[in-house]
Batch of 2 targets.
Target 1
Amino acid sequence: MSLGFRHSLPRFAVELVAARGSLHRMTDRAARRDAASLAPAELAALLRDHAHHPWKPPAAGPTGALAHDVVHGLDITIALDHPRRVPEDRLRLLLDAVTLRGLRFFGVDLTGIRLVADDLDWSRGTGSPVHGTAQELLLVLFGRRLPAGRLHGGTEGSRVPPTLVA
């Protein structure tokens, strides 16, 4: 979560080239390196000390920055089974901002699937319904696989595709 405001654009580019152009590979390597070299208190301090940094992901603007913080924050809270609730106005903005290009970037294929939020009036796609909270569905749109039991099919006999659960 702190990579964007800790590394210059040239360093970012060098890391990306070293990862053969894969942003996912690059960020995974950086996160593992940080986790191995920094104590938990130091990692927390990086986030705290830069909480008001005006960083924006390249070509994504303020909505991209919000998505970055919300999605990575949910990555943490879902893993810890923490009851964090993202405010509805932010969820709606992010759910509605996801494009087909974004889905492809994160490796998401919704062919034959209709995501339906249980806690908001929101859905996306066509096909067999898959229900969950809006914030869980946001994670699906960003390519996350959720723990079993977080999503459920919406009709008799329907089930959650295995590509959506860990």
Target 2
Amino acid sequence: MKLGFIGLGIMGKPMTLNLLKSGYEVTVYDINKSSIVELVEKGARGAESPTEVGENSDVIFTMLPKGEHVKSVLLDENGVIEGANEGAIIVDMSSISPVQSKELSDLLATKNMEMLDAPVSGGEPKAIDGTLAIMVGGKEAVYEKVKPVLQSMGQDITLVGDNGCGTTAKLANQILVNVHIAAMSEALILASKAGINISKMYEAIRGGLAGSAVLDAKVPLILERNFVAGGRIDINAKDLTNVMDTAHSIGVPLPLTSQVLEMYHSLMADGKAADDHGGLIQFYEKLANFEVKGDRE
């Protein structure tokens, strides 16, 4: 099975490396040519356009920032559909809206091509070690064909339902992650300004009901003041915007999510769009005029 991968960023690059390590033949493309060169040095085949990826692949993966980027690489003049054969499978692993995903799957069906929406959770660390959670929407028969490939990139892989269901599951995931980060930030700023040792507090609570993967992933980085993005603030703001648009379209109020989205917009206005979403702590620090530190006694 020949694979293609379009989008070699924070997530796409390590995911492609895991495919190569598993022995797959992978043709890659990104607007950043240096990323292509880096993957070619690791054994991938470089392409000059999405069309060329389509020409050389049975299954094409996309991992891109926004729905419009996915639509462009698939459907534009130099898009995948200009080169892909009938029966090719597109697996979009980006975080886009369910409406966009369903529209794309319907359009591809007119070209006798199949599509799965398969967004991921776990951030850069799990992309690197190949243990991502992958939420899949699409036909079961298509999923079964692609599942062995997905297992090179992820550990918990679930077919949620038909096309659009994977992206809907990802929206729910993003609510849980980002609202959790906000709650964690509130707790940290309160405890830190009260004067207790945050490192010790973290150790005290992480084994109880408040413990979580989010807590373990983000608190150590916050205490190091390390906001290098594993999940960028602007990308998570985009995801929460998709959440709110979807919620409004079906009559679901989401007051907590809307507040976190406004916090992200505030941080972006402060020039922190490229920070990790754990950098949300900086919103609370500005309000409290206090910086969280790990060594307070």
